[in-house]
Design goal:
- The complex is a heterodimer of chains A (274) and B (536).
- In chain A, strand 5 (199-207) and strand 6 form a beta hairpin.
- Chain A folds into two domains: 7-86; 92-271, Nucleic acid-binding proteins (OB fold (Dihydrolipoamide Acetyltransferase, E2P)).
- Chain A has helices at residues 7-28, 41-61, 78-86, 109-118, 164-173, 175-178; strands at residues 92-93, 124-125, 156-158, 182-190, 199-207, 215-217, 220-222, 234-246, 249-261, 269-271.
- Chain A is 28% helix and 22% strand.
- In chain A, helix 1 packs antiparallel against helix 2.
- Chain A has 274 residues and is α/β, with parallel strands linked by helices.
- Chain A has a five-stranded mixed β-barrel. A two-stranded antiparallel sheet of chain A has the order 1-2.
- The longest helix of chain A is centred in the first third of the chain and has 22 residues, at 7-28.
- By secondary structure, chain B is α/β, with parallel strands linked by helices.
- Chain B has three domains: 12-191, Rossmann fold, CATH 3.40.50; 197-227; 232-533, no CATH class.
- Helix content of chain B is 60%, strand content 8%.
- In chain B, helix 12 packs antiparallel against helix 13 and helix 14 runs parallel beside helix 20.
- Chain B is globular and about 85 Å long.
- The N and C termini of chain B lie far apart (83 Å).
- Classes of the chains: A alpha/beta (274), B alpha/beta (536).
- At the A-B interface, helix 1, helix 2, helix 3, helix 4 and strand 2 of A face strand 5, helix 9, helix 18 and helix 20 of B.
Chain lengths: 274, 536
Amino acid sequence: MKRRANSELLFQVVICFILSALFVYALISRKASNYVHPRLYGFLWFAAAALFAIAVFMLRFSFTPKHNARPLKNILLIVPMITAVIIPVGVVQSQAISFGTSAGRTQNASSFAQSCVSSQDKGVVIPDSASSEDDIGIDTSTSPSSPAPQEDKNGVMTISDEQFANWYTDINENMKKYEGKTIKMKGQVFRMSTFAKNEIVPARYAMVCCAADLQPCGILCRSDKVSQYKDNDWVWVTGKIKIENYQDQTMPVCYVTKIEKADKAKEDYIYFTY
Amino acid sequence: MLCHNVLGENMTKIEVICGFLESGKTTLIQHILEQDYMEQYHKILILQCEEGITEFRASTMKNKSVVLDQIEESYKIRAKLFAKIKAELEPDLILVEYNGTWPIEELLRVRLPDDYKIDKILFCADASTFELYMKNTGTLMLNQLNNVDAVMFNRCVGNFNTLKAGVKNNNRDAELLFNDKSADQYLEAFLKPEEIQKENHIRSRNRISVMISLICIYLFIFTIPLYYNVFSFIKSTNMIFLGILMQAVPFLLIGAFVSAFLQVFVPDETLVRIFTGHKWLGIPLALILGFFFPICDCGIVPIASRLTQKGVPLPQAMVFMLAAPAMNPVTILSTLYAFPGQPQYALCRIGLGALVALLAGFVLSVIHIKSGNVLTAFSTVTCSCTSITTGIQNSGTKGKIESVFLIAGQEFFNMGRYIVIGSLTCSILQQSIPVSFFSGTGAKVVLPIALMLLAAFFMSVCSTSNAFIGRSFLNIFPTAAVMGFIVMGPMLDLTNLFMMSSTFKKRFIMRLTIILLAIAFPVFLLFSAMLKGGSL
């Protein structure tokens, strides 16, 4: 029997290498965007590099044997690695929507109280029907550069995927600007138990920081035709904006003139950038 | 012919007894050999690597075939030696009296015959000189201390806490034996044949149950994708869990690096001078320094203890300890990132952190506890320093940079466990607590604050990343309670208390906990009352 190495340290080295590799993989395959905001990519690259460096330095010392080494001391760190690898990427979804609060940014005291109470209920994962392994060929150059939506010659303002986040913030802050305008937007059908039969929200899920704070964002739409669409169907909704008082809150409501099936957006989530 | 020993296996156990000259090694071996049960061994070899003052007395030994061999040079300990021992002597027990100045890995590295095994390493120490040796021998003693299974103190008088802390700082798992009775019990457990057999039985039974549970977990995990819908909860939780971890890890690493950098490059004396410069400016200065001190809560405890040791008044040191992790630049940066576009969270964090730290400092200086009364021990090395790192710290810039990486790595692993537990708890809570649970008016103020303080206490999340975890609690808990979590978490958590207990007396830690709670509750209740009117 011989002891050539410090199993405890060696195990740590292995953990560091694997973690670093996982980070790099998540970044290169763009899978990271399912978990965290693209703004944190720089930090993740740093983390991957730092872990790699630490592992290299530790490797040198892990060949000094240690008598009472406990390699399993850090076994807990294996847990997230295992779950990351074997549990497939899902979509965290919520059952409640809070209007007028652009995910995390609270505009006034009343909506603050509301967002605390109603923003996220039990999340439900919707199996990613489109095929969960390849769908993220994401171009993360999100909204900041994309111009604000303009009306075309028919007077319809089409909101593209890239514009959604900025437009959503804007319409909640300056709803007067949009009153009476015709808007065309894309989102997933979202219903809350308190909604009337003819009400849906074509919602996009917005991430502020990480998967823990995903929230549906969208404008309440009214139409008799919405009932034929199931929850989470992707739809194009065209309609006129009116400002109404809904459940003690002044907010834009869209009266639908046209609703049609849409393709899934390229990105699963929208990201708020500040 | 195989010589079966008392265990029924053809195994030779090697027990190592190390420690400095005159620490009682020879006496211990003599004592072991005088035990009744030693009779059952066929042949016992004593390898003496040091000439002790005490001589062995064969007459009182229970076992009659004891062989003594002396080794004068460390290079003689090698594979050949043990091969020769096996061929010529065939002992079933080898007691090594190891030289206190030889690095232990010289022995550990040796390729032993297949059926030879290093069983236990014991460290003998003279209680009266332990502290002195600890300070002056540097890596020599730490090297051995780091590897031992148990430490046996001789000539103990009075307070054991100093000794306890000295050992535990370096080797958390080592058993401490202060009197003959506990020592005898410990020795029996691995030397008395009947006890060993009992132990083996238990161990093999444990091993089987561990195997079975591992297989169950394994099967469970791999069948998760099959129960796609049933386990949507798990999938969802996993997304949140990984999300929190992925954003916490980089900040944890930054904290670890900064802390390691300070540990290696900034001498403590500089800090002490700063704190004791002016009579009245001490506490505010401590606060401001804490503000600019980019270190996470795990790194601050040892520094605060050392400051106390070196004569910095207790209130100052405590204010520094409380303020630094709650509101240093790294923390503020991460808070800004966690609450994008909402700098008011970071401002509130700084304000509340400063308030609580100041109030605590004020209370401490009013009740007037002297530093000497709260310390259990001298502070030796910091939380994550291993003997490896202490060895190279003095060896030029290259060595220093190397130790920065090593200490950072250790710190990362120390805190990594708590972060994994923390974010797992958090994601499960988030997915399972219905929002309506807290929607009642009564539950909006008092209960959430209590719950969040409790969560902060048990989750022990590092200050550099707890803003992210707090952020995700915002969906369930009101803002004031989340602020409580973010601000109080680094000040009052399980990990910190554990670390503090190595230097401070338990009574003081209790008192500090009570003081902090007594301050935190009114402060955050007031804060939530203020929020009612205004906005955040």
